[in-house]
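Title: Request for sanity check on Carbamoyltransferase prediction

Description:
We are preparing a figure and want to confirm that the structure record we downloaded matches what your pipeline produces today. Could someone re-run it with the sequence below and paste the raw structure tokens into this thread? We only need the token string, no images.
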Amino acid sequence: MIEARRITVRGRVQGVGFRPFVYEQARLLGLKGTVQNNMDGVRIVVEGEPRAIDRLLMRLKKRPPRLSRVDQVLEEKVPVKGYRDFVIQESDRRGDSSVVIPVDAAVCEECLEEMFDPGNFRYRYPFINCTQCGPRYTIIEELPYDRPFTAMKSFTMCERCASEYHDAGNRRHHAQPIACPECGPKLILFTIGGEKLAEGERALQEARIRLERGEIVAVKGLGGYHLACDAFDEAAVRRLREGKRRPRRPLAVMVRSLEEARRLCLLSEAEEKMLASPESPIVILDRRSDAGLPELLAPGLGTLGVMLPYTPLHHLLFADGSLRALVMTSANPSGLPILYRDEEAFHYLADIADAVLSSDREILHPIDDSVVRVRGDVPLFYRRSRGFVPDPLPAPHPVDGVVALGGQQKNVFAIGRGNQIFLGPHIGDMDSLQVIDRFQREFRHLLKWLGIRPKAAAVDLHPGYSTWPLAREMGIPVVPVQHHHAHLVACQVDNGVNEPCFGIILDGTGYGLDGKIWGFEILYGDARSFERLAHLRYTPLPGSERAVREPWRNAAGMLADLFGEEGVEWAKRLFPERMREIDVIAQMTRSGINSPLAGTCGRLFDAVSALLGVCRASSYDGEAAIRLSELGRKTEDPEAGEADEVYPHALRAGEGGLEEIDFSPMLRELIRDRFSGVPVARIVEKFQRTVARVCVERVLSWSERRPGLNRSVALSGGSFHNEYLSQAIADRLRRAGFRVYTHRRVPPSDGGLALGQLVIASRRDKAHSEEEGSGDVHGGSGPRGGKRGL
């Protein structure tokens, strides 16, 4: 008996060889019909024996192509038409899109073998690709993903490429970026002034020679330009730092092979797997002490950001000569987005690079490298971008048409479609017009691709953030979301948690419901509402943002506020070169002039870092806290002292039972230890243990007082990049019988903020949004510092 079925497959099923896979399986099973890309995914009409159709369905679900991800398979019986063969049809571009946009993928092993095979017509071709690797998101102009709607539309396929493209049994069947030396993109080496030096193989060899002799070359990759130099050449690394005005921020390194990575760093099996994955992110690894790399790559840190070559060009740069590792850092001047056009490279890199290695294949959508740290077998994202964007995350309920514009720092936006949430690429800090322009461009493109007409926009509660005017320009209701509420919900969504739970939110900066700066929060709630249970005692931040960049100011203001004249004298003893400024800071804290009140984990770590002489001025975001936590991993005598030794703290009662955590007793003893010559690493260890212990105790205390609350805790906020805090808090809570949720698919820092914002906004009661005639929704504040009702 012959029957016919229409099958719709949704997920990441375009640009990954899915149609050729279906074609091959259908032919093997003796089935007839068609397969077609459309705006809904992949549509299959198949006729044959019911058992054979069932086997096809099983293979679609269980054995799809390497880069695909099947989210949904729908089937329905249809009339038999009597197809004589199985064919791949041209794409149908009608209707609204519900496809998942394909992600960029590292070059596969099959393509590498061909590229290094002298007998292959793509021998040493730096743009080799197939359906299982190569550019996707970065070259798409419109959907569905077909060559005429990509950056490859200007390259006409030669006979050999066309033959492979149309051969249903070939690995490159409908590989949209297919190319070869005869018909595809070409390498071009320019001087930094824009003069063409060489093309093709000569350009490659000249670039490699320049790198070997210590020059800096801007290299065009999948998503933009990198600044590259020999990672073992200290003089070249120093010159790159000076040119980029990046004195201490860690630089990412690309190594020629997994074996080289093992020589330079300590690798677990999970870290090796992540390095070699199709996503090929930067993986933060523990560096070997005998690696021979300059300390200048990551000053003061025992870790190193490492990635493997992920484009054919990268592999070719390492294939000849002596290069073992290259600095590969994003080619963007401080505060600007990654560069991706030749004219930008010539203009902005004139004082940094010596040459530009480019190509005539256009990048349509720039994207930064993703950055992860593997803990156990789970990746912890620092930056979710290339290789992962714009893959959707499942939503806990329908979120169609709701968008979230993210935060001011580490901005990432989010768009809701059906029961999916699409996070955009890493945009950066929204402090310049160039970054805001990049945000708007990528946001509009993704909206168009997804076929979404926004109906509500979530923004951070902070009234001064750049996202507010962007949201108002849309002419739709604007939903303000408190920063740490968004962090809590982001962690819940990341873990598929729908019920209320505790939240320990340790962060740098977030605008609070009381107008003060929050960032050390014990919360309880979900997407509907949250209650603030405890927080860090507020202290003035003299000079506001300047105190963030210069932690010694933060420390001096904290001491002056908490300990009066005694604190001022301590500050002068600790920072003797700043005596006159300390008197001004003390006056600012007393009068409240340009000294907003803050109680954040980030600023606490900054202050302690400065007090201990670890970092008095930060050259990059989070430097003071990062270098402090690094010392905590290097205790001089791990056997000294009690394993559970902590500093004292106090609790003060606030409005409505809200608890205020007062660390002034800790700071007094910490400074006494500093003046007494206690090793700094031991002080750091005790300090971090105290912070972790207090967080756990507050959750346990509230759980005992309110036994009806769920015994589960979400850990979120940028401070949870600190390995000690994350592990110590999670371990203690689990031993106490709590379920603990940590981030798995988005960063705990502001790169994951939009995920929580979107889900909160979608839960906001519709009647509540109608209360404001202006279209702005300002509800949800509740009693100050207490429960936030919706």
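Thanks, this matches our download. The two ends are 58 Å apart (CA to CA).
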